[in-house]
Amino acid sequence: MELYDVMRTTGAVRRFTDDPVPDDVLERILDNARFAPTGGNRQGTHVIVIRDDKTRKALADLSVTGARRYTAQVKNGEYPWNPTKPMKVTPEEVAATAAGPYLPFMYCGAVLLICVDLNVCAAFDQHLDRIGLIAGASVYPFVWNVLLAARNEGLGGALATVTVAEEPRVKELLGIPEDYAIAALLPIGKPVKQVRKLTRKPVSEIATRERFDGEPFTAG
């Protein structure tokens, strides 16, 4: 596919057919995705390819914690898991909420769990009084490359993070070292319905000249 077409049609896919994703296709996806930039070119990413049904079921079970709160907050009109706005629903309300539509997509062609070695991340924002973001620069370009490469292969996936709410238990399940962080779970498979066109805000609404409150950026 042409690059811009891939970029404009790589949406989140959460419903998959039963078609398998062969190892050679997954290897080709990862072989191309690995050229994503990382801080200092230290390449601290690690991918776990998960096909075993018992492991997937365990991951789905561990996703319930995050999914319940996500669903409860959405139903309450909140931005779920937001780091600046305190949760308004009670723990009792969260516990009584069904997990929502976030777990079935664990069952697809393959699940990729992507970790990053914190020993090689330059977290320039670690002392700021806000949630840390910068360390993600050493892993999320790779994650997005995986999704772009999957789209190019006629496959789809979704950048899922709900399981990270139970990161210690996921690490124990998969033997992940303590100094690694879980960045994403990517279900990969053949979409039931392929995304053809995505809707996004225009450039004039997301870019400004010179300052955050500057004039909208347009070519004209």
From TrEMBL:
Superkingdom in the source lineage: Bacteria
Domain Nitroreductase, chain residue ranges per copy: 12-190
Signal peptide start and end residues: none
Gene Ontology MF: a single term: oxidoreductase activity
Any Pfam family matching the protein: Nitroreductase
Keywords from the named record: Oxidoreductase
Entry's family note: Belongs to the nitroreductase family.
Protein name: Nitroreductase
